[in-house]
Design a protein that fits this description.
homodimer; about 900 residues; alpha/beta; eight-stranded mixed beta sheet; eight-stranded parallel barrel; 36 strands; about 20% strand
């Protein structure tokens, strides 16, 4: 064939375009990723350390760049270098490219610096033609296999190299099956397949106008050019744009000898793990099949056998590889051990034995369960294979979530109903209830319940508290139900849109499944799955390896980890998980308590200061008691309390019954309540009369809260001898004067309380930074604020102009366009919101060098966001109790990655 | 008396603490404001130019600072300097301080560098005691006046200097009146008042323990120290904090001789204007009273007489001052003329004649109507008194608003009903209608209407269009009604909270006033006043002086002025006012047209792409026609068109009738419409599925609009030979990819349209910067955007986290606290939002040096915001049509103030 070689472009003397690997040696190694691509560098590395890898060579990424720079011409000298490499491959595997009786077959694969999965198809079995296929049939004693390989090669090559679409061949095999009355592809005989090959070739010719190439050299160069051309196809360009991969990186091409595990009974194929991927136990482990190829293992037609005697199941009469091929087994075992030591991680290895010779086809870090990940990391550190720091980096913080909650018994039978969003992890079973009130009543009778709602609101909190878990038909990962459930550590499946709920008849259906109130269901908040009835669960074990990992993380991290907790119960859970304080205690959740809500409603409905103060006087002792409970639970650790934040109308009675209740209680007409509720209605409550705007307009609310907090601090000191550091936090600040005015008011209350107790206890006053203006004016706010806590939920909403509650209708389209790598409400938008945080940290510290900086809100439990907070030099992150261990590990990661970068 | 003099602190040789003025000379002048305070510097200036100002002296602000630095001790030497100054005053007015027969009386006043109105009370008539009061009585031949002065002096001095509260004296005069059977204070006789003085003095002694000071020196120093002490009182400290006045500025003290216009018929008092303050005509003008003091003019007991013969009303038989005191009159006239020449502005002058001697008590720039301001500025420039640039600076741009609209005839009788907010200027009368539909029906019958609504929504637009004006019971200065009315240039009174509307009975009441549909009312949008019936109006005259002023402004300004216009009518109005393009054409307003709304609703209710395209195909020709109309009206000037912006649910049918109409039209069930409406409901629509999020999720909507715009451009070129520059604007951008993706889509449409017309017409694609993230990422957005238009309404909402619609409930409290000098939705928040704009301008220009920058939204018509835009180097501002002249002048001011700063 005529190659597009640029003859003007003579090679430099030392221009090496092709890097050989094989026979226990390699011209490249793992560090040459940029030149050889990820796959090429790895193959070279394995060869270099003496592993039996099928020999091959890598055409460098520089060739790809030269190809495009020279107007799609290959550099002079490449052909010769590849030819020499091919000679070496032939020698290594004792087969020859295009040989009639002993043909060398090769694979051709792209491999760029960054992984671009699915961007370029692979061509396997290249070198087959009408002649060599017969040689393959004879050597494998398997004509069916040989022609099936040939058929697949034609189809693959036609698709990838010749541009003949896949579906051109689909009907041919369907026709064959119809004619012969077959059901499965596998029923086709060797003769059928030979006929099919002829048919395929004629299809290719009909489409391209020329016969299917029989010359292996032509096949080879066709595939290589196809790989280079694929670098600029639409799919690759889009992928690169989305993943910010520069075009200039180019792709390498790997040409590698094919080996076969199906050439007789001295052949085999299999998969090995250096440790058990589901438990982490350090035993060699795996499966194999004699006289088979990889596809047979996947297809599941034959049952694979165990590699080791030790891991054979009871009653398994088949031979372990340890028994059937003891010598090759030992070689495999020691090779795998070598690989684990080399890569210092548990390996997942694909191998083939061809005529008693072991070939390693691939090795990679093995996927594992969270439990296995923890065990393997700890074990390897204790074996001295890796350091404690490396062990920490081996465990994905997010994976810990699996360990902290009960999980469904994987072996239990399950009846699937539907799937929603995995909104809060953990598994739970309970009887369906459709209202929070019903939940409360039934819970008192000792029933286990699952609260099922179209969506939840702050009024459902008491029902969520008593339920085992929550299922909603609407709302995303950051809906009310999801956020509150995560805070409570309760399982939640949200946005299960196929669930239709009828509150009137107290029934729901999902597809054909019909349920009534009181029926049992089970949800898996880690997957979003919903099941009929009760599915048994396995509970979490946080001792042993997990505990050790946490201690190692604590020794490394510099960020403190606090928790978001509104109740003494949450606070206790979080302390058990290692929380070092409360970073966000939301006082409004306390207001929904059945006892308090009436007084709160009376307060809101007040039209005069006097009326309001009567109601506040009722609330004060209850609030004080709330804070005593929390201070007691935290036992001297710092507690940040946010003053009342949400718009008042969230507390308003909605139902006729509730309105009447408040009307009676406050001694006013229901009509006035309706009017007031109407007057409090807002077009955009998120940007309305809330946060410290309540404190500015109704100072008596904030001073009541400040008094309750401070009096609680004195009470806890008197009753339990615990000295508390309350950090009183002012929300939704946009102007320095808000902080100045409200801090003055709090200081006045504090002076008054101190005078009464004849003792001055410490406290701090600080502010949330959750509006862009607060971040921009941080330098003017800092003189009045002893700490900043970044409220990244609202800061994200305002910076991006997205209402989290309403984002569902369009964020999907944005993700499809690849505009956000991660949901900005889950992982902090460093590019945008991050700029404001950075600026606020700098300006705040410039004015008050010891200002305490932290983050509360959902991002505080997200590892990537935690890394950002670490980089900003914050003092702490605060997250929901069940995220505390994740945050501890992520904070350690942040330190270690910073060092290594 | 013992003065707190710091004897250790000996004066430097040249330390001057007291600056004398009087007798045609002065030690200070107008430039010494920092040392002498505003009042002291001005008095010195007037003396220095030879005006007959009552002599006096100023104790410097440095004395105030020294007083506080030395622990409230006066500097050594001050007493001597003041004593010398007092001697000079005595000589100048030929009276002596404390003299029994010819007593000098003085006033003592504070005067700081910045005006602090009401911060310090004045003490008048100081020097009166039991002896000098008799001397005053004899000299004035008016014992009643002398004792009334003494009584007032005791009360004032006791309050300001001795700390005896005002109310200590209140009952004394009440008792006197009861005893004597008087109704008015003025009925008291000299003897009554003498008795009252005794009573007052005993009250003072009872409160302070010492007798009321009879020694004039003691009185004087008491008053001086009181002024210094007042600098640190709570009221002053608060005022300084609110107005950012440094404590270190200190206050000066002015001691000035009292003069009396009531010592006989050779005495008088009056007020003069150098030009007519209501018309601006350059005639000397004013009023006086013989043998009277200033208070008599104010009290209105006697009718003042004209100063000049020319300005006497027909039938006025009283003597003008020109006749009664020709010599003093000529002196006054020439003094006033001198003052106008000196201060180069129309002066408002207070004078007193004491025994034939003229004294000027005060001069200041006279308040004037907008018409007078324009005329005076133009006249003075043409007289050569000031330059054209100075003339421009003399007219407050905002005052022009008065000239652009019809105004109520000031002489017409009026029946006041209530007052709301002055939401959109102009006066209008009409019959009350309570619905937009009713307005439309009645308008067709030729009726003049006033649309009265609780509040308005986009669905009322057609009613607002046909009404003469709008009155709402709810909503602020930036409510829907206010914004739309200003855009239309229609009078609007919003938030008239005393108006109660009953839509059912079609009635409204405000207090005792009751109205039914069809009754006539009149509103004044410049004041917020509402009147019964028809009040005649005077229409605007934009020729002559106004036109000249505008031309001068145009010659100076560098900012272009565009307009926000959605219809050809608006566009024409704006062009008449001088608009140089459209900066914001909102396409959604077009959608509310009765013809279009049904198709638009069908489009929104579509659930599939196909359904939506059917509806869009109906809308396309109508949109194209809209743009043809606007392009034609703008005749080649640039037109910026914003693609669809508001949340879709704003267009949804609300009433049962509308739902049925759409259901019939689209051939779907009303139930489905209800469902879809429910699905489109949003918690915070301002941050919801709107702006370019619609373009990303439903690209076909934006491409339809782009096609309509571009096809219109070709049509206008073909039909009218007008070449248009459409600037297609993408709203609510938060991510560079939004602009990239949508620009690509628009470019594809443009290529298609160009191919069809076989001609390429120019167009631009740009973006709004109205979310903080867009401002922060401006550098990444600019490569895809040919222009930025700052949407400061939304940028303010998101940066401050304030929903404009909901701000009414708390912004009032913020203003009370002085947190915002101006409503941030009226005047750009330079401190916060301004930072983001600055940053976006810089980053945008860094990437694309020729990027076109402008601002649309309400701030584009606000002079302070325009000055900021000028400073940022923007290309244009865009504002509602009736604001265009204001913006032209404000843009000129920005240039001139920049030069002078």
């Amino acid at each position: 064939m005529n190659l597009p070689v640029n003859s003007a472009n003579l090679p430099h003397q030392d221009d090496q375009y092709v890097y050989y690997f094989g026979g226990g040696t390699a011209e490249g190694n793992a560090t040459m990723r940029n030149l050889l691509g990820g796959k090429g560098a790895n193959l070279a590395e394995m060869c270099a350390i003496g592993l039996p890898v099928p020999p091959g060579c890598t055409i460098t990424t520089e060739v790809c760049n030269a190809y495009y720079e020279q107007g799609k011409q290959l550099p002079h000298g490449l052909k010769e270098q590849l030819s020499q490499a091919l000679d070496r491959i032939e020698r290594d595997v004792d087969a020859r490219f295009g040989d009639a009786s002993n043909p060398l077959l090769v694979s051709v694969r792209s491999g760029s610096r960054a992984s671009m999965p699915g961007m370029m198809d692979t061509v396997l079995n290249l070198g087959l033609n009408d002649v060599t296929v017969e040689g393959l049939a004879q050597r494998t004693q398997n004509a069916r296999f040989a022609y099936d390989s040939y058929r697949r090669f034609i189809q693959m090559y036609a698709d990838v190299v010749l541009g003949v679409p896949h579906y051109y061949f689909e009907d041919a095999i369907e026709n064959l099956k119809m004619e012969q009355g077959y059901v499965l592809d596998t029923e086709a005989t060797a003769d059928d397949l030979r006929e099919l090959c002829d048919h395929y070739k004629s299809r290719v010719e009909a489409h391209t106008g020329v016969p299917f190439p029989q010359d292996p050299q032509e096949q080879l160069w066709g595939a290589i050019l196809a790989v280079f051309d694929s670098w600029m196809n639409r799919r690759a360009i889009t992928y690169r744009t989305l993943h910010h991969i520069p075009e200039s990186w180019g792709t390498a091409v790997n040409v590698q000898a094919m080996v076969f595990g199906n050439m007789g009974d001295d052949c085999a194929t299999g998969v090995a793990f250096t440790r058990n991927p589901s438990t982490g136990v350090a035993h060699f482990y795996g499966e194999y099949l004699v006289n088979a190829q990889g596809e047979d293992v996947v297809a599941g037609i034959r049952t694979p056998q165990s590699l080791t005697i030790a891991s054979k199941e009871a009653g398994d009469t088949t031979l372990a590889m340890e028994e059937s091929m003891p010598e090759v087994f030992r070689q495999l075992e020691s090779t795998c051990s070598l690989l684990e030591k080399h890569y210092k991680d548990m390996q997942d290895i694909e191998f083939t034995v061809q005529n008693h010779k072991l070939w390693i086809l691939q090795t990679r870090a093995g996927k594992r369960t969270a439990a296995a990940a923890v065990k393997i990391a700890i074990d390897m550190a204790q074996e001295g294979l890796i350091s404690q720091h490396e062990a920490l980096l081996r465990v994905d913080p997010l994976a810990l979530d699996q360990l902290l909650h009960p999980t469904l018994d994987p072996n239990a039978p399950k009846h699937f109903v539907t799937r929603g969003l995995p909104a809060s992890p953990g598994a739970a079973s309970g009887r369906i209830v459709f209202s929070a009130d019903e939940a409360e009543i039934r819970a008192k009778m000792g029933e286990k319940l699952l609260l099922v709602r179209i969506e939840t609101s702050p009024e459902d909190i008491h029902g969520m508290h008593v339920a085992q878990g929550i299922l909603t038909a609407r709302g995303g990962m950051t809906s009310h139900a999801a956020v509150v459930a995560r805070g409570m550590g309760k399982p939640c499946v949200s946005g299960a849109s196929s669930v239709h709920i009828d509150y009137k008849t107290r029934t729901m259906h999902a597809g054909a499944h019909q349920f009534s109130e009181g029926d049992w269901i089970t949800i898996d908040g880690a997957t979003g799955d919903v099941y009929e009835g009760v599915v048994p669960t396995i509970s979490a074990d946080l001792s042993g390896d997990f505990e050790r990992l946490m201690h190692w993380a604590d020794a490394v991290r510099t960020l403190k980890i606090r928790t978001n907790a509104d109740t003494p119960e949450d606070a206790k859970v979080a302390r058990n998980f290692g929380a070092e304080g409360i970073g966000l205690c939301r006082t409004e959740h306390m207001f929904f308590d059945a006892q308090k809500i009436i007084a709160v409603r009376q307060m809101i409905l007040s039209e005069t200061l006097e009326e309001r103060q009567v109601a506040l006087a009722k609330i004060l002792p209850m609030q004080r008691q709330d804070f005593i409970g929390i201070f007691h639970a935290m036992h001297g650790l710092p507690v940040t309390i946010r003053l009342l934040d949400p718009p008042l109308h969230e507390f308003l009675p909605r139902s006729e019954h509730e309105m009447r209740e408040v009307a009676n209680h406050a001694g006013i007409s229901i009509e006035r309540i309706r009017e007031r509720a109407h007057a409090l209605h807002e077009a955009n409550p998120m940007l309305g009369h809330r946060g410290c705007r309540l404190g500015i307009t109704y100072p008596e609310i904030y001073t009541m809260q400040a008094r309750a907090i401070l009096e609680a601090a004195y009470a806890v000191r008197a009753e339990h001898n615990i000295t508390v550091l309350p950090e009183i936090m002012i929300p939704l600040v946009m102007h320095p004067d808000e902080v100045r005015i409200l801090k003055n008011a709090i200081d006045e209350v504090a002076a008054d309380v101190a005078q009464h107790h004849k003792e001055v206890l410490p406290y701090m006053v600080g502010t949330m930074i959750e509006l862009p203006r607060a971040a921009l004016l941080a330098g003017a706010i800092a003189p009045h604020a002893q700490f900043f806590s970044f409220g990244t939920n609202d800061l994200t909403q305002t910076t991006l102009g997205i209402s989290r509650d309403d984002a569902g209708s369009f964020l999907g389209a944005y993700k499809k366009h690849g505009m956000f790598d991660h949901d900005p409400f889950v992982t902090l938008d460093v590019e945008g919101v991050g700029q404001l945080i950075h600026l606020a940290c700098e300006r705040g510290r410039a004015v008050r060098s010891d200002i305490k900086l932290g983050i509360c809100g959902e991002h505080g439990g997200d590892p990537a966001s935690i890394a950002f907070c670490h980089k900003m030099g914050m003092d702490y992150v605060s997250c929901s109790p069940f995220r505390v261990p994740i945050a501890r590990l992520a904070a350690a990661h942040a330190v270690l990655k910073e060092k290594s970068s």
